[in-house]
Amino acid sequence: MKRDAYFCTVKELQEAGRENIPDQFRSNTHLIYSSPATLAFNSPGAEGFGVKRAGLAVPDSIMLIVAPGCCGRNTSLISSMREYDNRFFYLMMDETDIVTGRHLKKIPKAVAEICECCEKKPSVVMICITCVDALLGTDMERVCRKAEEKAGIPVRPCYMYALTREGRKPPMVHVRQSLYSLLEPQKKKANVVNLLGFFSPLTDDCELYDLLHGAGVKTVHEISRCRDFEEYTHMSEANFNLVLHSEARFAAEDFHNRLKIPFIELRRLYQTDKIDSQYHALAKVLGVKFETENVRKSAENAVEEFRKKKPDASFAVGECMNGDPFELSLALLKYGFQVKEIYGTITAENFVYMRSLAELSPETKVFSNMEPTMIYYDPAESGVNLTIGKDALYYHQDCPGVMWNQDTQPYGFSGVRHLFEALTEVVK
Predict the structure, then answer these.
(1) Using an 8 Å Cβ cutoff, are 357 and 330 in contact?
(2) Strands across the sheet containing 155-159
(3) Does residue 45 sit in the same domain as residue 26?
(4) Starting from the edge strand earliest in sequence, which strands make up the sheet with 401-402, in order?
(5) I want to staple 37 with a disulfide (CB 3.0 to 4.6 A). Which of 48, 302, 335, 404 is the partner?
(6) Phi, psi dihedrals of residue 314, rounded to the nearest 5°
(7) DSSP string across 365-407
(8) Residue 252 covered by a domain
(9) 3-state DSSP helix/strand/coil percent for the chain, to nearest 5?
(10) DSSP 8-class letter at 203
(11) How many structural domains are present in the chain?
(12) Is residue 203, in this structure, part of any structural domain at all?
């Protein structure tokens, strides 16, 4: 008997409501969690990007991974990258450690030995621990304090706890807090702003930089652009923070509570009208006026150039890319294209777009990368002729498409322009 991959239409999801999201789309209902990261390596802006790489965003930092061999081995790919050479260290747990927690006494000594062998003294040691310590109930804050006393440098925890992915502070939320916890109070400067959210910078031509400079901002700090630890410490001089990813919200609240730096939260969007509205709302808060007409026109021209090349574009949109698959799908529909399929884990953050999606394209199918029945997925009758995202490319290997999960982050009007320029290239 032929089996099919499970899906729901956006109309069915909208009618069910956010309180009745099917288990197939909720990661906490899967005993074996297959994240988008199992499909391919993901950039800092994509779903599935791991704690290990993120934890080394602080300049001159190193990481000690405390884990059984099975949890630590997947770091080999990252540690082979030139920018992470000699920045990963391992404390392997054996069966006795797992049962008794004996390894906790070894961590301070291991940190001290690592610091001694480094050619350059690290700015901070990030301790990455796994679900084993979650189950043991390890007080990692206490362990880090002991390691600090032993090594004489800051030590911070990174919780690679898959068990907490549905909790109030999932791993990627907590790691952002750890990254900025080293900052100390300093005198504020009115012309300094931090961008929080991503682990890599916005594209150099992103209009957000020019808009901020036009509003009187002299210095825009991003952790990924900090050349050394000294420059990183100047992030505490900011007058305010701009949060560009919801997972940085708790970190921004820490900034506010501990360093008295307020924050404004923005979304990454691909709908030009919404981008414009968001910028003008920001301008109103800052008491300035943003001139966005030219950059908006440039983005919309890129959409039109693509339309000329591919007027019958019919998309599959994945979640392994730099954007929200539901928001991007809505943008594509508003531009007049078809969206046949979406791949995504559904949360309340995504669900805000469901009503509009259901109105514009009620029969669009939504699949889950976590669902075991995806092994039966058959693209033959999908109607898809173009893909966005690594997972969408995987399911539609005979279709042209863009991965759209590069390290430099697309944002605002320039993000829209770059996306449609990339799409135009692949359909030539």
Answers:
(1) yes
(2) 88-92, 62-67, 125-129, 155-159
(3) no
(4) 7-9, 365-367, 338-343, 314-317, 386-388, 401-402
(5) 48
(6) -130, 110
(7) EEE-TT-GGGGG---TTS---EEESHHHHHHTTTS-EE----S
(8) yes
(9) 45, 15, 40
(10) P
(11) 3
(12) yes
* 339: nearest Cα among 286, 390, 299, 392: 392
Distance, CA of 172 to CA of 176 (rounded, Å): 6
* Residues in Cβ contact with 183 at an 8 Å cutoff, skipping those fewer than 6 apart: 232, 233, 235, 236, 255, 259
Please classify residue 338 by burial: count the beta carbons closer than 10 Å to its beta carbon, then call 0-12 exposed, 13-18 middle and 19+ buried: middle
Q: Which pLDDT score is estimated for 370? A: 82
d(CA 328, CA 262): 29
Query: Does 76 share its domain with 20?
Result: no
Amino acid letter, 131:
C
CA distance 290 to 211: 6
Q: Which long-range CB contacts under 8 A does 67-70 form with residues at least 24 apart?
A: 67/91, 67/92, 67/93, 67/128, 67/129, 67/130, 67/132, 67/160, 68/92, 68/93, 68/98, 68/130, 68/132
Please give the pLDDT value at position 85: 79
State the Cα–Cα distance between residues 12 and 6, nearest whole angstrom. Answer: 13
Structure tokens at 61: 């930092």
Same domain, 259 and 348: no
pLDDT value for 163: 55
Written as one letter, the residue type at 105 is K
- pLDDT for 420 equals 98
For residue 179, is it within any domain?
no
198's tokens: 């991503």
Which residues of the chain carry a pLDDT beneath 50?
32-49
Q: Is residue 415 part of a domain?
A: yes
Q: Do residues 340 and 365 lie in contact, with contact meaning Cβ atoms separated by under 8 Å?
A: yes
pLDDT at 348: 80
CA distances from 97 to 65, 106, 115, 150 (A): 14, 10, 23, 21
CA 201, CA 45: separation in Å to the nearest integer? Answer: 10
The Cα-based distances of 223 to 55, 168, 194, 195, 358 in angstroms read: 11, 24, 8, 8, 38
Q: Which amino acid is present at 32?
A: I
Q: Two tokens at 244? A: 């560009």
Length of the chain: 428
The predicted-structure confidence for 14-65, as pLDDT tens digits, reads as follows: 999 988 988 888 766 655 444 444 444 444 444 444 777 888 899 999 999 8
- Bridge-partner residues for 193, per DSSP? 220, 240
Which structural domain range is residue 102 located in? 41-167
Helix ranges, 125-206 (H)? 131-136, 140-151, 171-180
